[in-house]
Amino acid sequence: MIHASSLPPASAHEFWRGTGIITLAPLIDEERFLFSLDRAPAALLEHYAWPLVRLLELPMLPHQVWALASGHCGMAEAIQLAERELSARRLNRIIVLGADSYVDPLSLGWLAQHRRLKSPTRQTGTVPGEAGACVLLESEVSARTRGAVIGGHVEATGLGVHADGKRPPPPALGRALAEVVKNVLPGAKDEQSFHGELLLDLNGEDWKAQAWGYAQVLLAEHLDLGHLRVVLPCESLGEIGAASGPASVCLAVSGFLRVSGPGDDAMNCSISDCGQVAAVRLRRPASPRSPTLARS
Prior knowledge:
Number of domains: 2
Strand content: 15-25%
CATH topology of the largest domain: Peroxisomal Thiolase, Chain A, domain 1
Radius of gyration: 19 Å
Largest sheet: 5 strands, mixed
Structural class: alpha/beta
Distance between the termini: 4 Å
C-alpha cells in the first residue's frame, strides 16, 4: 500500500505524525488462540500492532495506534473510529490493516472441533484461508493537498451489535443485517436506490447463508437483488475472517479504478461469529484526484 498510495518514507516525520494505524484481528476465542483479552487486554497492541509499527520503523505515538478484535465486522468499526479522528482533525489519514489465518494447526483444530469445516462427508462448511489487506482512509483535504490518486468515497457505514454479545438465530441475525443495510442506503427508504456491486462475506456455513436469506426477504423492496452483481470473495480466498472487510473494500475500489468497472456503487456486508453485523457503502469518485479512500 505504501507504494500504491505514493506514501513517503518513514523519515518523513511530519507526514507520519499525522497518520494513524488500526490493526484488525479476529474475535479472540480462547479455544482457538489459548488466551483471553479479559486476562490480557493489551495483548493485541503489545504483540500485534506495535511490532508492526516498529518493523516498518514508523515514527508513531501511542495515540496513533489501535488494535481491534472485531473479526468480520472490523472494517466498519475501523471506519467509524477513523471518521471520529479525522473529523476532530487529530489525524489526517488512517491506515487500516486486517490479517487473519485459518490454516494454522490451532485454527484448523478449532474449526474441526466445532464441525465448521467443509469436507467430503460434510457439504456445507467453510474452506480455511488466510489473507492480509490494507486500506488507507484519508480526509479529502489531505488527499487533494498531496495530489493522491485515490479510489473511492466512503458514503455510509452501519454497525449493529447484539445486546448480549452472543450470536442470535439466523432469522434475528437476518433482521439485524437488513436494518443495517437499509440505514446505509442512499435516497428514500422505499426506493431501490442502490445500483452496484454487493460484496458478501458468506463462507459456506449454513447459519450465514440462512441469515442472508432472511435479510434478502426484508430487503426486497430496497434492493433490486436480481440486477445487482453479487461478489463472494470466499470463492477465491476461502474464509479470511478479519481480513474479509478490508479485502472486500480493496476489490470494490479495484473495480472503481477500472475504466469499464461494474458500476459507481459498492456495498460490503459482514456478519461476525458473535452476531455483529455491518454494512459499508462506497462510491466511485467523480475524479480520481478528489476521493477519500485508497486501497492496496
